[in-house]
UniProtKB/TrEMBL annotation:
Signal peptide stretch: none
Keyword Membrane among record annotations: no
The organism of origin for this protein: Microbacterium algihabitans
Annotated keywords: Carbohydrate metabolism, Hydrolase
SUPFAM superfamilies (alphabetical): NagB/RpiA/CoA transferase-like
Recorded superkingdom: Bacteria
InterPro entries noted in UniProt: Glc/Gal-6P_isomerase (IPR006148), Glucosamine6P_isomerase (IPR004547), NagB/RpiA_transferase-like (IPR037171)
Protein name: Glucosamine-6-phosphate deaminase
Residue ranges occupied by any Glucosamine/galactosamine-6-phosphate isomerase domain in the UniProt entry: 12-225
Amino acid sequence: MTEIAIVKTQAEAGRIAADLIVAALAKRDEPTLGLATGSTPLPVWSALAERSLDLSAVRGFALDEYVGLPAGHPEIYRAVVDRDIVAPLGLDPQRVRVPGDDEGPLAEAGERYEAAIADAGGIDLQILGIGRTGHIGFNEPGSSLASRTRLKALTPATRADNARFFPGIGDVPTHCLTQGIGTILDARVLVLLAFGETKAPAVAAAVEGPLTSSCPASAIQLHRRAVVIVDEAAAARLEHRDYYRFAWDHREIATA
């Protein structure tokens, strides 16, 4: 089953996720890390940076990228990844990819990205956030649970949520390239983080609701090793919170 860690602070969440990343990356000489942008993963990158690890051999694959923003725009995810992840962690920027960054035809960008992930041996650990609509990556409600990296239209709700990064909602792109749900499920470990009461309904639907494309994040229920790290506010609608706390506190017994 999905493991649930309910934490007091975002810093604690970051430390737990960093532990999981270190363990996953230690299993291969040239490991791969799935990168998520936005504010939610920032405590993860901070906790990882504090460890002063040599991550120069790590390959990185971002979840998604906007379509239609001009080169050099500060909110293209290539720029965000370089600013928030590559530089603080000391990653080699030449070993970090975002969808569509190879300048080939847009129509085949998804297939090329899938091939690049496969050539790298797959993703060892994928960091995820979750949107209010239950989306992971930019897989909006209704996305196929078997989908691969592709071009997608963004919902009005997602564009409204992301408008804070732009002068106005009219400046938020309407389309993106995103890893598909099937692509995400291929990662060997999934770590999903969520903070705040606005995420509580989506977290409950993903963890305890039915498996449905109406909540794309519910697909994590199918994964062999998914860890969900949430603060008290984001966990507020979980029916089995007490059990999750007990199971997390006693997880060493299961792995001994």
